Amino acid sequence: MRKQFQYGAVGAAALACVALSAAAETGAYAVAQTGSAAGQVFDIGPDPAGLPANCPFPNNDATFHFLDGTMVQHGTTNKNGDWGGETLEGTAIFYEDTTPLYQGHVTIWTGGGNNAKSQSEGGFTLTFHGTGSLGSLDIHANFHQTSNANGNSTANVANVSVTCS
User: Fold this and answer.
1) What pTM, to 2 d.p., does this model score?
2) Which of 12, 94, 124, 165 has minimal CB crowding within 10 Å?
């Protein structure tokens, strides 16, 4: 069975239900859910910076298919704003299009929030080390963006490092 991981898909609905009931009573809530990452699929798409010349595969649609591991979703709401995030960690297979190429350890974090003044932030970090018949693959990517109360971007960071050997 293939599950497509979408940020906040199931967790957001659960968090929203808890938030509405808790916020109605206290104006604040915090919740965390844990589970297995096995079966989750995380789509990362092509590398926005392009791949090093020695990588033995095209820069097409890439995904991670989790074989095992853990998933944690968390959220907090209070008078100062809302924050939430998700972490997946475990053994996964790196696919390029539909071809499995490398198996190894991956950690993915994504999250964000906004404060009562409508300032917001969001981020994403991914680290992977895997091996396969093509050699080894190391990926480290992190993105972070903040915006002010007018919705204008005040910081936008994107770093991607891919090493094939």
Assistant:
1) 0.77
2) 165
